[in-house]
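User: Some background: our group keeps a shared notebook of sequences we're curious about, and every so often someone picks one and asks for a predicted structure to add to the entry. Today it's my turn. The entry only has the sequence so far, pasted here. Could you supply the structure so I can complete it?
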Amino acid sequence: KNEQKYDNNSTSIVISKSLFDITNQDIICIDKEKIDDIIRSWYCPTLKYKQNYRDEWIDFKSIENEIYDCAIFGRHEINISVAVFEYANELTIQNILDNLDRCYPSFKKCTFNSNELEFVQSFFDDPHQAQHVLEITYQIIVMMDRNISDLNMDEHLSKWMKRMQFDIEDWELFEKKNDVILLMNHVGELWHTLNSLQS
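Assistant: Of course. Here's the predicted structure to add to the notebook entry:
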């Protein structure tokens, strides 16, 4: 029987990953037979009734440590994150927009010109895309609220989204098209326009 005790005081390394970046190499599993073998290797049956020799009890700590070492030896802890996953109803969004209006006067005054409006209307060529853009706009507004003291309203919306680590397919939706550039200033008008076009 292996009498070595496993030390579980090693420093943990936490790697943050997006949910969509998880691969098969990050998934750890161990089968039932392997767990049974580990338990048997650390099990010392008591020989007499009311025996009080601690060394002859089941060493649960060593069992736990060996399972840990066998299952994830050399691996790191993964902190899975889903970007900007937060429920926000229309009342919440409107409150955030009102707050942005107070903090950034240019945000409240911003309206679309005809080219910008055409750009937004193009999202409705595909109903699924229109719904997705509305959902992304919700996420943008929530993220703006979280970073309200550090916003540049003249920044390109797509560049800001990229910097905030939105998915590439999401920030690419708002990239420059036909010389039309959506700015951070446009987000409030974007939300109102999307809602009016959808209804």
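Suggested note for the entry: The first strand starts at residue 14 and ends at 18. DSSP finds nine helices and two strands in the chain.
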